[in-house]
Amino acid sequence: MTERTEHVRGGWALAGAGLLAAAALLAVVNAGTGGLRPWLDAVAGVLGAAVLVATGVGRVRSAWGLVAGGAAVVYLTLSAAPSAVSAEAMPVARLLVSVAALGTYLAAAMPLGRLPQYGLCCAAMGVAAVFFLLWEPPPPKPVPIARPLTELADDLLARMPGWKGEHQRIKPAIEDVLGADAYLNLSLFSPDNPYRVQVFITYNANAMTNIPHVPWVCMTQAGYRLVERRQDDVPHPAERGRELKANVILFRPGEGMKRMGAIMFQYFNVGGTYEWNRSMARIRATSGAIGRKGSYLSQTQVSVFMPMAESKDALQRGSQPYALGRRFLETLIPLLEQQYYPDLDGSEGGT
Fold this sequence. Notes:
By secondary structure, the chain is an alpha+beta fold. It is built from 12 helices and 8 strands. The chain has 2 domains: 3-134, no CATH class; 149-340.
């Protein structure tokens, strides 16, 4: 092996290891729960890292060892993408093209001198940069909700005995800012309960709709003070072993407001994928929905209003306001999934 060849392979191994580390970080952030796929991701990552390191230290002398390691990097990067993209046929084609491109690059670069190698590498990076700057993924097709969202009020009350309330339409000016195709604004009370519950759900048939309404902005604009916000894992009530992460936010009233604190559970649903992070929800919304009917964007907020004396300990998981909010969530989630959200993999709405 010549010094020039070792230099090229070492550079490729170092670059591949960096890409692998970044892809592994994305996989940790976005990994699904359960199933075979997380194990395949882990195996691909380990094998890819082993091949790249072995190539870098000269244990693997075939240039195609870099192709094998690079293929693992590409696969892991795709597996870290939202499932609407990574689980379909198109990314498999991208993977094959990426493997072919790596092989072609190595075959062309190996016989060249050092300066032409760097020139070819810079040219390839420039072409890739221009491509990703100009290229946009195909937008997901809008998918209407399976049932009118206002009907959820009766379904929810039928499962929460003792609670009463009705959907309240918000002001037209606020509706325009909200920009939702459908929404539920349900104010609930119980004669035997000191708390008041507010259920607010929005639905947009187009997943790429902007997300203007978030509680940490709107509630503070209404006069509340945001005391604390964190993310809690919420077990999925209908699927054992599955969890979703929700924002849990504590608000206290501002000056001149009624002395009632509030604890809120909030999350997004983008085409069936739950997300607490607004930025990640936007990324998932722009990823398309290859091989499916389309995608949608929904936001759920469950607020429990309580006397100020109880707001101090409201974020504790054993507190009554926290438990009540979880109870409403555990009732709402399967209702929305089974009767209101469209089935993106089938031909009918609902599951």
